[in-house]
Write a structure and sequence with these properties.
By secondary structure, the chain is mainly alpha-helical. It has 8 helices and no strands. Bound molecules: protoporphyrin IX containing FE.
Length: 141
């Protein structure tokens, strides 16, 4: 009879507990990511349309996405504590988001990830995971 060995690994198990939150550098690391994300949105020509969906002053947008991602990555639920429950498709339902807007959003995140001191494996994991809420925010095409 085969006896299954316990799997012992040093690899961080992203998605388990707060491993992803820690891999992203906690709140400070996530704030740096989100700042670079919105900087990319202001600079990339393909993001101009989604930039213009946002308020002129991005201070609150930067803060809200930071607080949301802390909880979404398994860390403290800071967005919920400050603003209450959130449903990603609903907060975007007043915006016209198709494939190109979704992809522009993810492109800004890809650009921001390049500048973060994260493990290469975590950068790929995070971008793959973010596809899910980005696709759920899509409401046309
Ligand atoms: C798919 C493309 C997306 C577009 C074009 C988009 C665009 C926007 C815009 C224009 C706002 C309003 C900002 C403001 O009024 O301050 C917003 C809010 C927000 N978005 Fe997105 N978004 C996208 C995807 C995502 C994804 C994937 C996430 C999460 C991983 C996310 C999280 C949020 C949060 C937390 C807010 C704040 C909601 C609130 O409290 O009002 N968005 N988004």
């Amino acid at each position: 009879m085969a006896i299954s060995e316990p799997v012992i690994t040093d690899e961080p198990q992203y998605g388990v507990g707060d491993a992803s939150y820690q891999a992203a550098g906690g709140e400070a690391g996530i704030r740096a990511l989100v700042n670079d994300f919105y900087d990319a949105m202001e600079q990339l020509p393909e993001a101009e349309k989604i930039r213009n969906m946002h308020p002129a002053d991005l201070t609150v947008s930067r803060d809200k996405l930071t607080l949301f991602l802390c909880g979404w990555l398994g860390g403290p639920r800071l967005y919920a504590q400050q603003y209450g429950p959130i449903r990603i498709p609903q907060v975007h339902s007043h915006l016209a988001i198709g494939q190109s807007e979704r992809d522009a959003w993810l492109r800004c995140m890809q650009e921001a990830l390049k500048a973060q001191p994260y493990a290469t494996k975590f950068k790929k994991y995070l971008l793959d995971q973010l596809y899910v809420p980005a696709e759920r925010s899509r409401n046309k095409e």
